[in-house]
Amino acid sequence: MAVPKRKVSKARRDKRRSQVWKLSAPAFSRCPQCGELKLPHRVCGNCGYYKGKEVIASKEA
């Protein structure tokens, strides 16, 4: 059975483990209809449009 020849230092171990926990912020895009920030590939929460078509009827009208 393979056995490590030397002890792995805490710094080396923690550097390796820290890569798992990196998170990136979600990317936002502007809605072409109203200009509001929204998540990509989602219906705009402000105007209810997706890809130039009204998907959700707005409450204003």
From TrEMBL:
One GO cellular-component annotation of the UniProt record comes to: large ribosomal subunit
What keywords is this UniProt entry annotated with? Ribonucleoprotein, Ribosomal protein
> Gene3D superfamilies recorded for this chain?
Single helix bin (1.20.5.640)
**Single GO BP term:** translation
Q: Which NCBIfam families match?
A: rpmF_bact
Translocase found in the keyword field: no
Keyword presence, Ribosomal protein: yes
Q: What is this protein called?
A: Large ribosomal subunit protein bL32
Example GO molecular function: structural constituent of ribosome
Please spell out the taxonomic lineage of the organism that makes this protein: Bacteria, Bacillati, Bacillota, Clostridia, Eubacteriales
Domain of life assignment? Bacteria
The entry's family comment says: Belongs to the bacterial ribosomal protein bL32 family.
Q: Name one Pfam family in it.
A: Ribosomal_L32p
